[in-house]
Amino acid sequence: METSPVRNIAPGPGRPDGIAQELISGYRWVVLAAFGLVLFSQALLWLTFAPIETDVQVALGVGHFPVRLLALVDPLVFIALAAFIGMLADRRGFRFTVTLGLGLMVPAAVGRAVAANLGLSGHTLYWVLLVLQLVVSAGACCCVVCVFQMPVKWFPQSQRATATGLAGMGLLLGNALVFPLAAFIGGFPAAPTPDQAMAGLSRVLVVFAVVVSVIAVAFLALIRKDPESPLAQEHLAPGLATVRRLLALPDFRAMCLIFFWGMGTYITLMITMEKLMGFHGFSARFAALVAGALTLGGIFGSMSLPAVSDRLGRRRPFILLPAALPSPLPSS
């Protein structure tokens, strides 16, 4: 008879939580790796147009702000939907929510690739891409909100910060690699014609659609279902009442402001990096290096700081320190 992939075990020595078998086996690391790949693909779709903004302008015949809006819709959609999708994730679980996200991202990514090869006019193609980017952003929100839920579902408390950092590393790795990947795949010349720019853009969209589709298939094949254990049930009852209770907590409001400031600054730099460096006379390749260096610092932090936080059993210093360090730096 086929055995269930999830098996509860009774509390015992060294296992006071009575956690599921997956939580003490290597399978939870498979889940984490698959989820990290999903976040990696989400980053590729979100920032597709930012590293090649000038070339996309030439291909579509639009200004820099419309092209920048293709990347800006992701954080805007996240602000609008994150709380509601978070409640959905609490009710339906990690696998359902990420699968829903992939169900939105994959068709939209394929649609972007198909639209770029239909011979549409630049302005028509822009509006098609913008609508599809909204769908991508809704799917990405489903995946990103699970960055903190997945470790709660699958990892004991002593490893949750480490797991969260490693999952976030997948997102940051996508942010770092999208810049050189988009430029390399597109193969844009120094001063492309509209046809050359459109051909390069089409190549980028096709390759990214294939990548996210393969990762989606791998995720669905590897992740069977959420663990059934007392540990996996450690969450507040979902609903707007819970959101109101959280917002009533001063520490929670302060943490939201810190994250809003930090992530807002990072997103702004990533979206505008190509133009920002261009204004100072630097090439798009140098902008990619700067964006990559910025993100590699985040990857290093994701690898090291959460483990230190787990070891020390402290969270607050590791939240406040990153916000405090850049404050004294002079602005250019």
Instruction: Give the helix tally.
Output: 12
Report the top-level CATH class.
Mainly Alpha
Q: Superfamily at the CATH H level?
A: MFS general substrate transporter like domains
CATH topology: Growth Hormone, Chain: A
How many domain modules? 1
Poorly predicted segments: 1-20, 230-236
How many E-type strands?
A: 0
Strand content: under 5%
The N- to C-terminal Cα distance equals 67 Å
Largest sheet: none
Q: What's the CATH architecture name?
A: Up-down Bundle
Mean pLDDT reading: 78
How big is the Rg? 21 Å
Shape: globular
Q: Structural class per helix/strand content?
A: mainly alpha
H-E string: HHHHHHHHHHHH
Helix content: over 70%
Report on the structure:
It contains twelve helices and no strands. α1 (27-46) packs antiparallel against α5 (122-144). The longest helix is centred in the last third of the chain and has 30 residues, at 250-279. It is mostly helical and 332 residues long. The protein has a single domain, classed as Up-down Bundle (Growth Hormone, Chain: A), CATH 1.20.1250.20.
List the keywords.
disordered N terminus, Growth Hormone, Chain: A, 73% helix, 332 residues
How are the SSEs placed, and which strands pair?
Blueprint: H1 27-46, H2 53-60, H3 64-92, H4 94-115, H5 122-144, H6 146-154, H7 160-186, H8 194-222, H9 240-247, H10 250-279, H11 284-312, H12 316-324
Summed up, what is this model?
With 332 residues, the chain is an all-alpha fold. Helices cover 73% and strands 0% of the residues.
